[in-house]
Amino acid sequence: MKAALVSACGEVDEVLNVGTAEAPTRSANAAASGELLVKVHACSISPSEWRLISGDADIIKKPPGFPYIPSLDVSGTVLESDTPEFAVGAEIVATWDNVGGFGGMAEQCIVKASLTAIRPEQISPVDAAALANSAGHALLAVKSQRIAPADRVLVLGAAGGVGSCIVQLLKVPGVGGSDSTHVTATSATKEGKDLLMSLGVDRVIDYSLEKWWETSDLPFDVIVDCAEGTSAWQHACDGALKPGKDGGRFLALVQKEHRIIMKSYWDFTAFLVPVFFRQLWTTFRTSLPKYQTSMTMGDVTGLVLRDVLDLVVDGKLKAIVDPHCPLPFTTEGVRTAFKLLAERKAHGKLVVQID
Ligand SMILES: NC(=O)c1ccc[n+]([C@@H]2O[C@H](COP(=O)([O-])OP(=O)(O)OC[C@H]3O[C@@H](n4cnc5c(N)ncnc54)[C@H](OP(=O)(O)O)[C@@H]3O)[C@@H](O)[C@H]2O)c1
Question: Which residues form the Enoyl reductase (ER) domain (predicted)?
Answer without folding.
Answer: 19-352
